[in-house]
Structures
1.
Amino acid sequence: MPRSRHLTPAELDAFGAELDALRDATRASLGQRDADYIRRIVRAVRYTGIAGRVVLMLAAVGTAVAPTWSIAAWVIGVLLLGSSKILENMELGHNVIHGQYDWMGDPTLNGQTYEWDIVGTSENWRQTHNHEHHTWTNVRGMDDDIGYGMLRIFPEQRWRPLCLLQPISALLLALFFQWGVAIQAHKVPHWVRGRTPTREFFARLRPTLRKVGRQLGKDYVLFPLLAGPFFLPVLLGNLAANGLRNLWTYTIIFCGHFTADAETFPKSSVVNETRGGWYLRQVRGSSNIKGGRLLDVMSGNLSHQIEHHLFPDLPANRYAEMGVEVRRICARYGQHYNTGSLPKQFGQVVWRILRHSFPSRPSQRGVAAGNAIGAAQGA
């Protein structure tokens, strides 16, 4: 893990002030190009989704007359529909729910009312992701996104014999990632252990169950039935498209948080946390992915995870240009700016999952780095 220099309280304040200035300058420049960008994404989601569903229908009907052609068409339909779902989930839904486009005054792009195309509700995501994760990024015992309650991926997490099965658990989480998002807010282990009353648990679960019913009805009942006797290829196409979206989302999110250079922090590091301290924790706890414009768009610009964690409510299409200055600021203050190719970053994630399925001790370097942030803030 590359070393980041320890900052004095004065340096920490100056570090925060420079990032605040970048944030303010970017916010002041928001305008038509940002509105045009997100509306192009809306159209791309709509038309690739329509195209994917039409091609899947044609492929299903074609199985009776041209089986070879229909297989190729089915694959194209899955890719189109999967791309639509990925774009809607990552570049549209995730970013809109963060309130990145509230300034436009468009009710269809309002962060408090937008409902996205997965089984989890936007309301629950606003709590678990926007508030808990982005406030307490990588703070052990406060950020439930560390391992999603299933995986031990940092040595500071307690090892249990069940961790030996986590390579399988990780694969299942990847395949069914939208379901992990759906149940995360309900803290099922608390209910299982009797810490949450059953009546309260199911009352909170009710909106999620309604959302699940709508999503399953749309993808696995309504559209397959429209194909009549050819419903099965359409159903399987929808299943495959959702699977592609789950795998891609899992990959991007895990690459953004759980690479070898990403750090976790003790609760003491956020006692009396300053603005500069919060910014520093976001930089040290996040990882970027190098890959070009297509990767940026298809990842919802979470290829710039560092910038997203620094400025979660600014339009994500600005992250690439902001990242140039963020990197300069980090260099001036001796802070490691963690970035790498998708294969490199995901390889590190896979290694973490495999390595920490076995007992391991917290590294003294990692503990010292986390404690240093608290010390600089006078915690």
2.
Amino acid sequence: MTTDTNDRWWLATLGRTVVWARLRVREAGTAEVLDSDGNTLPYDSEDSARAALMDAEFVEYDGMDEDDAQARGFTMAELDPPQADDDERLAPLMVRKLATRH
């Protein structure tokens, strides 16, 4: 599996369901977002991609801390961005239902 250093993981939550999105910044300064449906959405800049993610109520994973996670109803230990050998295998992992807490 290759990891692009220009990849940034974003997430949105609905209850105990986590929806992931991957923001990838290209060398030319353009950006693309791999969404939870496996679609790659192109943007003219990182800023426009980030704005679209924020408009859709996503937050950047790298900027989260334990308090942020708890405010959304989970812990940081429950969150790991999905990993796969390629985008085709990654797509089904982009939505994850977390175990119910007791």
3.
Amino acid sequence: MIQRARTRRARVVFLAAVLVLLVMIVASLALGARAIAPGVIVDAFLRPDPALADHVVVLSQRVPRTIIGVVAGAALALAGTLMQGLTRNPLADPGLLGINAGASVAVLVAITVLGITNPGGFVWFAFGGAAVAAAAVAVIGSRGPDGGNPAKLALTGAAVTAGLTAVTMLVLTTSTLAFDTFRYWSVGGLTSRGLDAVVAVLLPLLVGAVIAFSSGRGLDLIALGESTAAGLGHNVARTRSLGIVATVLLCGGATAIAGPIVFLGLLVPHALRALVGDDYRRLLLIGAPVGAAVLLLADVIGRFIGSPGEIQAGVVVAFVGAPVLIALVLRKKQVAL
């Protein structure tokens, strides 16, 4: 009876999440420095006219940033859910693998060594840097006694992140060009990147999403304890390895197209537990549309509170997410499973 009630609630929450996401997609297309009526938006899709300013704004500016928001928000939510399941810690974050720090160093290399200054040109550098950093954390954390232990993985990630952050600060304090270019990318946002950036990382994101959705049952077993999961015949090492690969693909792809956006991957799955419980299959399924909706909401809010300019979505997510997360932690009085 209790299980049936939870399933019913999860379905309601999922449908609500999808509905909110649809509303936020419309809002993202319609709202901004100039409000555009829904009818004009539909007309821009069906009968685009380059002579009409509203059509140009919708198709060339708001459609790309909306798609980037949906893709990056969903990917970050999935990556955060995976990390929390793999480490059995509801406050774990994709940054635990040094992904943001690795992406930042790679972007700085692109700026200082290759002279790239367009954010759209950072896509593969950010993705590659994130992948290399995460691979280093995974390899180092799996060596020696208790290799692959979540606590050891977290400590390794913290050490690698600290080292890469020191490199980032060193470059930024010695290069004015790097500082001026990097500071805009580093806050995280949905602007200055086109659909070509999404296309470039679409395959890795899809592969990561497929692995994530197929990992739900394994994460539920790991939540019971690694020895219990192994006793039930589950291959814990395989689930952890695939989970790390999926996290790198998802978070690396999201960081490549939207910059390092903090808190979203941490906040979404943690908040959803209060509504749907600890079943990772539900958390993954519902988390994807919720993450997309949250990032679009942050982007829309940033368009208004920064008027006549804009505040990047990454800043809004961090500003709003920090107090919300603190409230959740104080209410639950729990930081680990």
4.
Amino acid sequence: MQNDIKKACEIMNQGGVILYPTDTIWGIGCDATNEEAVEKVYRIKQRSDSKSMLVLLDNPAKLEFYVKEVPEIAWDLIELSEKPLTIIYDGAKNLAPNLIAQDGSIGIRITNEIFSKELCKQFKKPIVSTSANISGKPSPASFKDIDEEIKKSVDYIVTFRQKEKIKSAPSSIIKLGKNGTIQIIRK
């Protein structure tokens, strides 16, 4: 696992794109602060950059560096969530401009999965996490389900967890409104 993390960090530091396991499904990732790297991910997914992607962090304490004002309810949601939860926050900052939605929001998930958590920790920056599929096609439930076109398009494929047979699912997604509202995007 450590060799994969070291190599993935090297690739992302050079502006490259990785294919890696997360706390949900396999993801395509890059340095979330690098506009050119984010553009590569959009090209690989054949997706318009008006459709935003989320980022992973290893620690909730880092949220305040990427979100202007973290609503109080977010801390409780992160702590109490029993499954992976992506929260869409208003007021994104310190991220690649093409990663931030037109309304200024960003989806962030705090990962607790062993590999992605350690990867985020060692990379020391947020990492893009978007499903490893061409836009509009089904998300892969395991590594073997990832389209060969995706595998050929990335700069590095993590070997850790490739042989797992567990079928994973995407995270729940909620959007926190300015007035304290919670909107469920995906259960």
